[in-house]
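Technical note accompanying the year-one report. For the benefit of new consortium partners, we illustrate the data format agreed upon in the data management plan: each record pairs a sequence with a structure-token string. No post-processing was applied to the example shown here.
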Amino acid sequence: MKYLNFANSATNSSRPECVITLIDLSGSMNDSDWKPTRKAGAIMANIELIRTKARLDSQDSVGIIGFHRKAILLHQPVCLSHGAASLIRSLKNPSDGGSTNFTAALELAQEILFNSNKKSSQGLFSRLLSEILYETESHPAKTVRESQNGAVKRIIMLTDGEHNQGGSPITVASRLKNAGVIIDCIGIGGSPKDVDEKLLKKIASRNPDGSIRYCFIGDQQQLLRKYENLARHIRAI
């Protein structure tokens, strides 16, 4: 299925969306070239996405993953009609770490979006490895795993650096896109040369006109506007 290169309100799309937002929590996100920090700017943008989507499309669901050397599930996908406040609370001062692992973040998003239960079929070594790469923070809000079938599945990944740990994120991204997931990638920071734009463009989805769903943003207010726009539905064609 193809999608238009802009977002529309719920009146233009009858299908709900399940959005997993991936937030870089590596050490450089604490840089203060964005006041007070890049991390704070990313959190503000994600709060804007949650609030805007809750206002426009309250039956959609959102989940949150943070990542550095491993992926951390900050919040399971939850319906915004009752879970927006819980999602915002989960963004209060998430822990950061060293390195940047795009692959772990994308793999955890895949597991959540497709309700795979990898751990139940893994051997001891694989379970131990999974525990090293993934962490889960539980929240009381009711999750919406059962309602994800039939929803438009989206991933929004934000980073201020380069992938420097783990396997190839392109392989995971290709698998996700082949399964119909729409991936937006956003680079932030002082300069586009601070991020691996070539890799992020390969991870991101393409629009029907060939344009790539990637952009670099060097201004905090522009990032807020971008996430407000991303909160709106993608219209299928």
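Partners are asked to follow this layout when depositing records. The CA atoms of residues 21 and 133 lie 18 Å apart.
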